Amino acid sequence: MQTNPLxxxxxxxxxxxxAAAGSVLGAPAMAGDVLAGTLRLNEIFHSIxxxxxxxxxxxxxxxxxxxPLRCTYCDTEYAFREGRTAAIGEIVDAVAATGCPLVExxxxxxxxxxxxxxxxxxxCERGLTxxxxxxGAVDISPCDARAVRILDIKTPGSGEADRNLWQNLAxxxxxxxxxxxxxxxxxxxxAKAKIAEHRLAERVREGRLGAILLSAAWAQPKxxxxxxxxxxxxxxxxxxxxxxxLPVRMQTQLHKIIWEPQTRGV
Length: 266
What we know:
The protein has nine helices and nine strands. With 266 residues, it is α/β, with parallel strands linked by helices. It has one domain: TIM Barrel. The longest helix is centred in the last third of the chain and has 13 residues, at 185-197. Residues 1-31 have low confidence and may be disordered.
């Protein structure tokens, strides 16, 4: 097997799934104050997008370290603290080295680091399609207008519903998407009420919002900092949506079907 000459530069990335997905991290490329700025980086990997309307597309993921939330079903608890300091230029070069035109900034909560907005802008300027997977708890308005924000509104079952910044909904644009991860029927009813209250379905029909996504939470064991979650049957969610004729898009986490759900690096 050929040795990867960039192995010594890689941040945290574990498991056969990470290797199969082609995890990479390139050499530093400092060019100006913005590119020399630093972020706390957990991992970079090239895989298949598992969520949103972009599901199924090859995508480069930049996972940043840190999150102010502790959702019951969080499957990236390792990203709360693990990582290293990396220059923005280094991250951009690593993304470019894959040759993939689609990149997602994720976490943790990527927008909790203020320099993440600089990274988004640079990636957009390089002509890449940039997705941002962000909770509803951080102001999304500083994001470059060319990026696609996927706003993960926290339901009561997440344990973090009181952290939602509802003013974020006013900043959503035509390409942005809204996501609800559901743990039970109560979460579903809550999400349905919020969709109606904020007229999200009307915004999608009028072309002012890209999509409304409903996702069944996967079972997640108790961790060091999260309480864990029993999960929700996808079949139950599908039946509720059909019975209510709810104008939403159901999604799964495709990467957890392709690979073992607890494997890191995708």
